[in-house]
Design brief:
mainly alpha, about 65% helix, 3 strands, 2 domains, 7 helices, about 130 residues, globular, 3-stranded parallel sheet
């Protein structure tokens, strides 16, 4: 079976549908993954880059970002690096005023049973409550 890594641009074209031919190409890959003809992988860094681009460049609101991230992580035919850590980060993100990357750091710290060192006061405050 073929393994394929999706890059940020592929995910963005799929979500935004702004370049029709590229959207169709990614859609076809996803369809093949659903049918178990290939495996798709989304690396951790691509998740962050996708989030950052949608938030900063396309000005997606938090609720829309949550929906996009949840749909990425819930697709069992796509392997997302550190899926469970991201799922926990989404819960934290939904219920806090922290940035998504900070939520990921909290989730990762819990998963690895490590302390989290930061100078970010909001993150420190949240971390001390856990």
């Amino acid at each position: 079976m073929i393994d394929i890594i999706l890059d940020t641009n592929a995910i963005l074209r799929f979500i935004l549908k702004d370049v029709g031919s590229q959207h169709v190409e990614v859609y076809e890959l996803i369809k093949k993954a659903k049918n178990k003809k290939l495996r798709l992988l989304i690396p951790e860094i691509v998740v962050f880059e996708t989030y950052f681009t949608l938030k900063s460049y396309y000005e997606y609101e938090k609720e829309t970002l949550l929906k996009v991230l949840e749909s990425l992580f819930s697709a069992d035919y796509i392997k997302v690096e550190n899926r469970q850590i991201f799922m926990e980060a989404i819960k934290i993100f939904r219920n806090s005023n922290l940035e998504f990357v900070d939520c990921f750091l909290i989730s990762k710290s819990k998963d690895l049973d490590l302390e989290l060192f930061t100078f970010d006061n909001n993150l420190k405050k949240y971390w001390s409550k856990k």
